Amino acid sequence: xxFSLCRSLSAIVLCLLTSVAAAAAGMAAPSVALHYSNKAPLxxxxxxxVVVVEPDxxxxxxxFRMHGGDLYAYASVAxxxxxxxxxxxxxxxxxxxxxxxxxxxxIDQTPAEWPAFFAESVIxxxxxxxxxxxxxxxxxxxxxxxxxxxxxxxxGLVRVVQTLHQRYPGIKLILNRGFEVIPRxxxxxxxxxxxxxxxxxxxxxxxxxxxxxxxxxxxxxxxSTIRERDGIPVLVIDYVAPHDRALSRExxxxxxxxxxxxxxxxxxxxxxxxxxxxxxxxxxLMIYNSADSPGLNYSEAHRFFQMPLNHMGYVVDYADIQxxxxxxxxxxxxxxxxxxxxxxxPTLQQRDLSRWLHRQMAVGMPVAILGDFGLFPDRSWVENAxxxxxxxxxxxxxxxxxxxxxxxxxxxxxxxxxxxxxxQITGKLAAQATTLVEFRDQKNQTFVGGALMPWGGFLNxxxxxxxxxxxxxxxxxxxxxxxxxxxxxxxPLPVPDITTENGRRLLLAHVDGDGFPSGAEFPGSPTxxxxxxxxVLEKYTIPQTVxxxxxxxxxxxxxxxxxxxLEDIARRMYKLPHVEVASHSFSHPYLWNTSVKHGRxxxxxxxxxxxxxxxxxxxxxREIVGSIDYIRKRLAPPGKPIQVFQWTGDTAPSAxxxxxxxxxxxxxxxxxxxxxxxxxxxxxAIGAHGIHKDGYLQVYAxxxxxxxxxxxxxxxxxxxxxxxxxxxxxxxxxxxxxxxxYYHTYSASKQASLRALRKVYDWALAQPLHPxxxxxxxxxxxxxxxxxxxxxxAAWHVRSHGQLRTLRIPPTLGKPVFEGSQGLAGTxxxxxxxxxxxxxxxxxxxxxxxxxxxxxxxxVLLHDANARIARWTAGRSDRSVEFELQGHVPLQWSLAGMxxxxxxxxxxxxxxxxxxxxxxxxxVRNYRLNDASALIQVTCAAR
Length: 943
Description:
It is a single chain. The relative contact order is 0.07. The protein has 943 residues and is an alpha/beta fold. 22% of the residues lie in helices and 27% in strands. The strands form twelve sheets. Strands 1-2-3-4-8-9-10-13-14-15 form a ten-stranded mixed sheet. Strands 18-17-19-20-26-25-24-22 form an eight-stranded mixed sheet, sandwiched between helices.
């Protein structure tokens, strides 16, 4: 029973109540979730309005409330376990019975002092922690006693609820059962919950089983009475094995058919179940071997496999085969599992890996194997995966008989040599397989190098990627987007997109301070910093972020004789309103994690780990927090925030360095190394969004800096102009990255590099882009990793932190429907589908197969804009709207659904549309203002 499960501290639960149906009185209840895990995935659970948690686990209800949801605390009314802090204060005379199954004491509800004790000792501390809602459990536990007065116990329960309302005005209560007392608590109960209407859990046999018809009939009558007589929303919680999503979905639908809110979850309530809303899993678990590379940053899994998944909307978590593989991986949060092994994993891990993968396959978790299996598939793979490797012998040369169209993506399939060992598809799964690479030998035996299987798919080397001899470049043989889609059986979804806002590609610029004191090759021998200030920052008034190296500018750094001059230049930079303040460390560490040595640090004990500042030993806190303090106190204007830290050197911080940055409230960026160009036209040269280490996210720079394009600053010094190729190739055929102008101060030290820099800026300003500060971009990437996406039948639900404002709707999903939607402002067509503009942190919308018919009545919508929507308010009809744009440069925007009857006003004056020689759409009008922010009203005649 739920009240027993919710009591159990060993199996903490957070019970999820979703999309509660309207009560008979017509009042719609919030979507609610209960999940007692000590690591409840609150970022996913924010999809729901209310999340009930075990409060002893240290969650912060105030922080959760900031994003529109509410944390409720679980509280047991009629039972207490000895582990609870208030147990010692419970008088022996109040202890009515013992529940041996859960090692708890049943509390007598009749003592006059009990309601006040419960209010003060149980609810009081939680109220102080910020909880304002409570899930009251074990209301019927008095029936476990051998003798009790039913009426007296129920009177006691009523007094408890009444006392809570008296002591804590505004308190919100969800009651688990307590059917008999509900009529006496009018207006004091937000929702009534019950469990096991169709599917239940037998704690004695530890089995999931259907509910008997007689029990269902009785419970259905009780719940219908509460809904119809008392007008209180009802939640039904049923139990299904966590891997059986189909049965969970079916059960939830049956519960909803009665007008009840549904929540179908596992017996421990430790997974995200299915109710009126279903969370769409956006996580992929990547299994890799840390022994294959110096660190995760340098693994094939991260360098090559993560980016396509990120672009498709998925967050990648990593599991190292050198550690125990994670348990409890289900389809509630994970869309699939990918393995990435360049070779065999250690022998001691092979059996565990094999069994773990087979368990995932058995419970319906899609598995994609790229590269090597990591082991030699034994007989168990025949039965569990349909793959035979043992005893497979080829006769003579192999001839290619089939190659799926997804192969030959960036380079043709390689010819196989005599050492290549394929596998065979066999057993009952063979008929359901689709081969990707197929061979036949001289005896006409069939072998494969990859196939799509009912459990997922595999593609072995050498058909995944190839290295270009004599270089560090690689090429994809298989189309990773196609392979992941088909092997992981991914369905179309609205993709959270970090490249675009309001239909325009983002533009950001950030500068690392390296070379600030360097002499520039210009008349008068100015410093590079002076040239950058005059020729770049003062001329290009778009948002820019500049990060200083304390050791270069401070009087106790490397250049004390120049410090006064350099600090003055920095102050002049930071006084510019379009320049954001950032730090590039104290001593510019070249290697942030000394336990992960790579490159020149492997065999060179003399290699410097940071700038040689006399008397200084590397200290992470000093580098991060100390440099921020220096810039705040000596360089930044009073009150101007400094919130960005830009990684130096190898840009591969340790988890500890990231922890320090997060603890200081800093945003962080750099790394990623996206440098695709015509010389290296491969998406292997496009980095991921970022990387998690021990739960801390490092955000990557969208595009790499000029150091790469200038051969590590050895020339040609005009080389940075080739970043324009990168900008173009990360926009088409897929927009994978925003435009990111990223360089060092030393780019202003030479005429050739300064000309290249100007060329890059001039190109960017000529494009229809959306300028943002680096801090704004970082927050979008963070939001990508935490955004919750759900479904309610045909409708999609989105909840985020409001920083990421674009969903990319793939053509296979359809066209967004604006009628009846929430949180949408418009759409703009792109190569990979529609860019859907969000107005804030929440959205609800549907999709349809095709757009509106020609001549159909169209609402006024935002087509594109170079600024953020601060407010969007529809008028009395869909032919009028008022909205506020807040940007950083003079406003440009366009509106769809317009005609000659429409009028646009801003700042109490009419704004005429811009003249266009050949508009792409007759209903789109373009507008401009010299202001960077404006409140805009649109009115059109009704059709």
